[in-house]
Amino acid sequence: xxxxxxxxxxxxxxxxxxxxxxxxxxxxxxxxxxxxxxxxxxxxxxxxxxxxxxxxxxxxxxxxxxxxxxxxxxxxxxxxxxxxxxxxxxxxxxxxxxxxxxxxxxxxxxxxxxxxxxxxxxxxxxxxxxxxxxxxxxxxxxxxxxxxxxxxxxxxxxxxxxxxxxxxxxxxxxxxxxxxxxxxxxxxxxxxxxxxxxxxxxxxxxxxxxxxxxxxxxxxxxxxxxxxxxxxxxxxxxxxxxxxxxxxxxxxxxxxxxxxxxxxxxxxxxxxxxxxxxxxxxxxxxxxxxxxxxxxxxxxxxxxxxxxxxxxxxxxxxxxxxxxxxxxxxxxxxxxxxxxxxxxxxxxxxxxxxxxxxxxxxxxxxxxxxxxxxxxxxxxxxxxxxxxxxxxxxxxxxxxxxxxxxxxxxxxxxxxxxxxxxxxxxxxxxxxxxxxxxxxxxxxxxxxxxxxxxxxxxxxxxxxxxxxxxxxxxxxxxxxxxxxxxxxxxxxxxxxxxx
Length: 499
Known about the structure:
By secondary structure, this protein is α/β, with parallel strands linked by helices. The protein has helices spanning about 1-10, 55-65, 80-90, 140-150, 170-180, 210-215, 225-240, 280-295, 300-310, 325-335, 345-355, 375-385, 395-405, 410-420, 435-445, 460-465, 485-490, and strands at about 15-20, 20-35, 40-55, 70-75, 95-100, 110-115, 125-130, 155-160, 185-190, 205, 245-250, 255-260, 265, 340, 360-365, 390-395, 425-430, 445-450, 470-475. The protein has two domains: about 1-30 and about 45-335, 3-Layer(aba) Sandwich (UDP-N-acetylmuramoyl-L-alanine:D-glutamate ligase), CATH 3.40.1190; about 340-490, Rossmann fold, CATH 3.40.50. The longest helix has 15 residues, at about 225-240. The protein is elongated, with a radius of gyration of 27 Å.
């Protein structure tokens, strides 16, 4: 895990070529409050329509979210959906010159009807598919293959996302894989369900799900994800296709990795609130490929892909997961950081991940020695100013410089543990400087909170926070509540209501 975290910290972009079935996911949403009077079906009162890139297009956006430079190759119809799909990809920085338009076939559109009833969360009611599964015309397939063959030398990796819609014919796959191998580049495949898997012979790795692997091999996967049992499926695919690695994705059971010449490795997943599995396979493929491009071992790349796919199922519909959010989730897998204490770099990463989700980060700081109700009130008010509160905690040496040789009464780890028990506190970071300015500059909070005993122009970091559009908030203190007063009362033997 240390190698994975280090690679995430030193993450670099890569260049990727994505070929496959490009689709448009259309979400028609509205209210579903009553049944039709002429049939026992719900009525959807449409409130809005949202269009998102799906299939191979989603792989492109996932790779772009992981900071890859992406070139797309595929075929769409000469229709409004195809033009909208190309425009959406181009606006995300994806090179779309390799997406051919074929007037003889429609752009694949998956239209989901989503209803909201009684103010509950959205529920997919029905799906309508507009598509052709007819293999590409030989002339268009040859033109597409030729364009890909000319482009593979200029990228770091190739991804094939096959949904069985007619683009990834055996001939096209064979030419793409041969050209990629000749160029010395890896090619990663997410296979289609029910197709002849020999079309992917010679690929670097494939990532079939449980059902796809069962159909391709004629074997049954273990319902409980037994690694020895599932390794039979992986071995069959590895040997039949001449792969370097085979990764079976097993939904709630995570994944099974089999490298050529290696032992099978089960990669468990983190239990998550599953909202929508759409796009999880796309995200897995993208993260696996980007991880390998960043020098990760097969095992760590599979761990990374597992985390990224897990985040994808927590959102509705297809939505790229930013690198910062994936990095943050990987960080939380590391046992020493399951609590709330973070390093400055980790807190900065967490803040960036939260902002990428549209959430606001609040920062405050202090010694918090002998925690009392005034501290708790300050922290609660600070947390109410945003979505996530990060507390800068003076370490023991800096408390001694500020308060004298008899302080702190409680060491930094004890103080952090008590703070971490408060619901209002999201994360805690030790700092040893006389001021938290370096920490504030690293975290870049949206809101900076201090007690109202400070004047705004005296608050360390105030000008920095405001310079990038943040706010500075001064919170009224609870009168008579302070650590110094508490210690004085304890020494004087004042009982009961001591502050």
